[in-house]
Amino acid sequence: LYVSASGSGNGSSWQQASPDLQATLTRAEAMRQYYGQSPDIWVAQGTYQGDGNASHYAFTLVEGSNLYGGFAGNETSLNQRDIDAHPTILDGRNLQPILNQPVAFATSNRTVISGFSFRGGRQLATGVNAAAICLRGNSTVSNCRFIGNVSTTAPGGIYAQNSIIERCEFIGNNGGTGICAIFGTTRISNCLFADN
């Protein structure tokens, strides 16, 4: 499935890209339940925001639907994307946390989040485990940036259980930690932490 900030379609192609990331995630979940398979989601450069409600996350991850940012919006293969040239931003607007994995995923369905900048995430409500991302198991975050996310009682960056975090940058996040790795084994490698 395809998402573009300038799109107006149903997400079936770049030409028909959806402008709504959460609606596309909801569609991916429906496809997973109906077909037993989850489509990957390619997200073009731009800024994507939720509804601003502090009581829940802006976006909900779908088991098996790998989430990739960093596209111009015309690529035909994953290795054509350029995450530096085409920044893809998930923005909490300093109002709400950003991305939630609601349950632990099956080991066979390890889900990848790659090529995004997470900024302006804010954790205020109880029951919200991180300002930027909550990972509950068998997910991988790679080549992402976490900038200026704020938490009162949870990590400003990532809350992680049994996950992999690699080649990421954590800069200027305020909260308990940049990452809180708990309950199981989380592997963190080749990451930069500054001014958290």
What would you say this structure looks like, in words?
The protein has 196 residues and is mainly β. Helix content is 8%, strand content 32%. The chain is built from one helix and 20 strands. It has one helix at residues 21-35, and strands spanning 2-3, 41-44, 46-49, 59-60, 67-71, 88-91, 99-100, 111-114, 117-119, 122-123, 133-135, 139-142, 145-147, 150-151, 158-160, 164-166, 169-171, 179-181, 187-189, 192-194. The strands form four sheets. The protein has a seven-stranded parallel sheet, with helices on one face. The longest helix is centred in the N-terminal third of the chain and has 15 residues, at 21-35. The radius of gyration is 15 Å and the shape is globular. The mean pLDDT is 94.
CA-atom Rg in angstroms: 15 Å
Q: How do the helices and strands follow one another from N- to C-terminus?
A: EHEEEEEEEEEEEEEEEEEEE
Average of pLDDT = 94
The geometry reads as globular
Biggest beta-sheet profile: 7 strands, parallel
